[in-house]
Amino acid sequence: MGHLHGARQRGSAALLFAGISALLLFTAGCGGSKPVAKVNGDALTEKEFYKMTADATRIDPQRGTVGLQTVSQWISNTVMAQEAKRLKVYPTEKELETRLDAFRRQAAVSGSNLEEQLKMRGMSMETLKHDLLTALIQENVMFRGATVSDQELDQEWTKRKQMFVQPPQVKISQITVDSPADLKKVQSDLASNAEFALVARTRSKDQFKDHGGVVPIQLPKRIQPGGPVAQEVVDAAFKLKPGQISEPVKVGATWVVVRLEELIPEKQPNPQDYKELMRAQMRQQKAQANGKLQENQQELMRAQQAAKVEINRPEYASLTNQLAGRSGAGGPGGAPGGAPSGAGAPPAPPGE
C-alpha cells in the first residue's frame, strides 16, 4: 500500500506540473468565445484572464487598470515561456519542486508554514506554483550561460553564514481592543480563567482573532515598523515567561494583551534552508558581470518584437504598439514591466 500511495503521489505531482506548465501558455480550449489575447497562437481565455486578475497581488496605479497590466504581463510571460521551450531551458518538474521546497524552508525559518502564509495572502498553492514556475522560466532565459557550481555556492555560504544566524525570537498570541471598556471585558474574562484563544476570537479586533490570537511568525527583538505586530508588543513579550500574560500595552489608539507562547533561543543556520535561493541570486550576479544578461535581454526583445500578438479587447488594444519596443524582462520572481503579480511574483514570508 505504501508503494502504491507513493506512486499515486508522484503521478499526481507530475499531472499538476504538466497542468501548471500548460497554464503558462494558456492554450485555447474553453468554449467558442474569442480569447482576450493571443501570442503566436497561444491564447489567454476569458476564464484564465479573470482568474489572473483575481490573483493579482501587486499593481502600479500609474500603468493603468489591473486588466491592462494583467494582459501586458501575460503577453510578456508567454513570449518568455515560448523562448524557454525554443532554447530548451524550460524548467523541469524537479526544478519547480526544489524551488517550492526552498519557500517551505523559508516559511519554517520564520516560524510559520507555507500554507498559513498563503492563506493570509488569499493565495492558493496552485497560484504559488504557477508564480514559481514563471520565476524559474525568467531565470533560465535571462541568466542562460551563467552557472553556479556547488563549490562556488559553498564558498559563498562560508562568507555569508553569519548573516543568517537567527537571534532569540518569540512566538506570541495577542488580543487587541480599541476602548477601555473592551479592555476591561478582556481582563475580566482572563481573570475568570477563560482560555486566551477563546477571548481573542470573541473580543480581539486584529487580523489574528480568527486564529485565537496566534501570530503565525516568530518575532525577533527588533522588528520592522509598520507590520501587524507593534514593537511595544514584542518588547513586552520578551519580558514574559512562556505561558505568562502581559499587562495591557498601549499601541497608538489601541490596547494589546500579549501571551508568550514560546521563547526560541539563538539558532545557527542550516545551509539547506538558504542555498537554493542563494544560488539564484549568485546566478543573476554572474550573468550581469559576464554580460550574458544583456545578451539575453536583447535576444528576448527580438522575440517580443517578432511575436504575433492579437488583442481582442478594444480597451487593451494600445498594448500592441507598446509591447513592440519592450524587452519584457523582469527580475526572477518579479513581474515584468511592473505588471501585477499573481501570475508573476511569489510572495515573501510575512514580516520580511
Provide the descriptors you would attach to this structure in a database record.
2 domains; 7 strands; four-stranded antiparallel β-sheet; alpha+beta; 352 residues; globular; 13 helices; disordered C terminus; Chitinase A, domain 3; three-stranded antiparallel β-sheet; Triger factor/SurA peptide-binding fold
Task: Explain the overall architecture.
The chain has about 350 residues and is α+β, with helices and mostly antiparallel strands. The protein has two domains: about 15-155 and about 270-340, Triger factor/SurA peptide-binding fold (Orthogonal Bundle); about 170-265, Chitinase A, domain 3 (Roll), CATH 3.10.50.40. It has helices spanning about 1-25, 45-55, 65-85, 95-110, 115-120, 125-140, 150-160, 180-190, 195-205, 230-235, 275-290, 290-305, 320-325; strands at about 35-40, 40-45, 170-175, 220, 250, 255-265, 310. Helix 1 (about 1-25) crosses helix 6, helix 3 crosses helix 6 (about 125-140) and helix 4 packs across helix 6. The radius of gyration is 24 Å and the shape is globular. Mean pLDDT is about 85; it is low at about 1-10, about 25-30 and about 325-350.
- What's the CATH topology name of the largest domain? Triger factor/SurA peptide-binding fold
Estimated structural class: alpha+beta
Q: Helix amount, in percent? A: 40-55%
Number of domains: 2
- Arithmetic mean pLDDT: 85
- Under the CATH scheme, the architecture of the largest domain is Orthogonal Bundle
